[in-house]
Amino acid sequence: TDAIVILGAGQAGVQLADSLKREGCDRPVIMIGEETDAPYQRPPLSKTYLLGSFAEERLPLRAPDFYEGHGIDLRLGVKAEAIDRTAKTIRLSTGEDLAFGTLVIATGTRVRVPPIPGIDGPKVFALRSLADSRKIKAALETAKHAAVIGGGFIGLETASAIAKMGVKVTVVEMLDRLMRRAVGPRISSFFHELHAGHGVDIRYGVGVQSVGDAGTVTLDNGDSLDTDLVILGAGVVPNCELAAEAGLACNNGIDTDEYGRTADRDIYAIGDCAHHMNTFAGRRIRLESIQNAADQARALAKTLAGTPTAYSEVPWFWSDQYDAKLQMAGLSEGADESVVRGDPASGSFSVFYFRDGRVIAADSVRAPADHMAMRRILAKPDPALTPEEAADTGFDLKTRM
Ligand code: FAD
């Protein structure tokens, strides 16, 4: 067979199927998705959908007739259980062995469940899928107090939606500041103030010791919280077991080169599950973003349609909390200098990050023009922006694009 089989009908899988058709690829495309809901957007699940201002009908990634209309064989409610690289087949939960010519693994991630007694109890909710978000919405109808474990993007977006509904929220963060993995300290403290101003209680440097079936959360400093629901926001783990069991290298994600290819020339991985060679970072990394999932899919579609295309986009990401949009361009990890552009007290500003004098990233709060300019500056082979220029609001960033 010359069929392209895609495992996972999420952001990356759907974009790949769509782009393959746009590239004129006439090979059969079969997409296997474990979930039963038609493929949908995840970002609203912790934001406007949870809040009730984004209707469920608007969540699907494509119109219902899109898949059949484009000759994409979409099979929902079916799980891929094993890959046989020798026979070039996939064992499906239906019992079928599905043959592939090319296999693309786009299985995403799942919520990390920390090893805490009671974490599998009835009041604890993960947030990854539409089904998860529906359950949280239902639990919120009668809730008075919610605990959020983890002060990362999903935890904080959820906290912001819940606080807006008038429900008391306590965020428990093991580290000393918010969104520590992704943003610098100035951004963390801005969002701390924003949440505190909305009545959210944030506890730092403390872990959860146990969760009772009635919703009592005991912290490892002895404090306890009486809650009606607990949201798990302690990160995700990549779904790479299928690849690992088939003998493919996995290191916090499925190892691929800049073309998305694994060590098996007929097997690729894209999206949240891929520990890919990122030409922007200059090393292998795993990203969890719409940008990464969609752009890797577009590049791979070109490659599979006959034009080898390396993935080489500038990483970018966003998060909405209350009425503040945070937009990130580049990767700030490893920065040795940062400057602020604009006045944080005004609620609109950016932080630019540098390493060895070279600009590597910017985080913008309610400053979309700075963000858009930075995406273009970072796309240049040798971005020329200096710290002095970045900090000077009188300096026009466009002259460096
Ligand atoms: P997914 O979209 O997770 O799709 C993978 C699919 O594969 C899933 O449907 C899964 O069920 C399926 N699957 C897994 N294993 C199997 C199997 N064995 N057989 C069959 N199917 C399988 N990103 C942003 O850039 N901005 C945001 O604001 C933002 N907000 C987010 C809010 C929430 C609540 C969540 C959960 C994510 C958010 N993200 C955001 C991240 C973004 O949604 C992901 O980066 C993106 O969905 C990754 O796409 P993917 O296709 O790799 O994985």
Automatic annotation (TrEMBL):
<feature type="domain" description="Reductase C-terminal">
    <location>
        <begin position="316"/>
        <end position="399"/>
    </location>
</feature>
<dbReference type="InterPro" id="IPR023753">
    <property type="entry name" value="FAD/NAD-binding_dom"/>
</dbReference>
<dbReference type="InterPro" id="IPR050446">
    <property type="entry name" value="FAD-oxidoreductase/Apoptosis"/>
</dbReference>
<keyword id="KW-0560">Oxidoreductase</keyword>
<protein>
    <submittedName>
        <fullName>NAD(P)/FAD-dependent oxidoreductase</fullName>
    </submittedName>
</protein>
<dbReference type="InterPro" id="IPR016156">
    <property type="entry name" value="FAD/NAD-linked_Rdtase_dimer_sf"/>
</dbReference>
<keyword id="KW-0274">FAD</keyword>
<dbReference type="InterPro" id="IPR028202">
    <property type="entry name" value="Reductase_C"/>
</dbReference>
<dbReference type="Pfam" id="PF14759">
    <property type="entry name" value="Reductase_C"/>
</dbReference>
<dbReference type="InterPro" id="IPR036188">
    <property type="entry name" value="FAD/NAD-bd_sf"/>
</dbReference>
<keyword id="KW-0285">Flavoprotein</keyword>
<feature type="domain" description="FAD/NAD(P)-binding">
    <location>
        <begin position="4"/>
        <end position="297"/>
    </location>
</feature>
<dbReference type="Pfam" id="PF07992">
    <property type="entry name" value="Pyr_redox_2"/>
</dbReference>
